[in-house]
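thoughts on my protein:
***
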Amino acid sequence: MSLESQVAALVSAANSLTSQVAGKMSQIDQKVDKATQAVPEAVNSLATRTIYVDVINGDNNNIGSSDSPKRTLRGALNDQPDLGTVIVNLKSPGNYQLDGDVSIGNKNVFIVGSATNKAGYVISPVAYLDPDGSAIWSTQFVLGFTGSVRISGATLKTLTLDASYSGGYTSSFRTSMFTTIGANAIISLQHIDLEINHGPMTHQHSEGSFGKADIQFRSVAVQKKPLLELPELARQYVVDHYGSSQIPYSYYATTSSLQGFADWSETVSFLNPLITSNVV
């Protein structure tokens, strides 16, 4: 084969290889574009999730869509990634009891009932005894270091005890509806009826491990309920305190009311000068 023929064959082979590489590059570019699009879609799906809960027709084995709702708040929230925003829509009126501790963690959680039927959507904890049979606990919303929980259009009832718990003992961090151990969180209630029974709504934690929550109320009716049983075990506060050290936190309320408390200062067990508030 002449030199000219060899050169022509080499050029032809090079052109063929270039064409093949160009085709592969086009395929690679398409896959990169697809992956690049998928990443923000995946991030966005984690950033904001909407979950439906139906205490009447739901099942915690469901996926949490409107057509396939979860049954409990624990089932809706405890298997969610600990980041981003989770919107929980309560579909049917009923008592959404905390059948176990509910993880708020570092998520921003919105729980939505009905502003026009607050009494129909009840959220309440359950009492239980620790293994030695003496310390009384409440199932709780467990707050995290950067998270928040915002609840609207519902009735919140703190822990209620009956005579079967006689002889037990309580403390603020055990019986709070929202526990702040190791937390730095926000509790925000709007269009809520809040019933304070044996347990406090929340507590500030200054002993053993630091923890706190800022409180925001808008259109919240706070009622201190008369107790027929075990009044000696009651801690009837919106904000209780565990430990003797002062903790800075904020406590704001607008268009809200009290029943059973003489004033807002009575809703706090430990008034300290580090509280920032428009009501105490």
Q: What stands out?
A: The first strand starts at residue 48 and ends at 53.
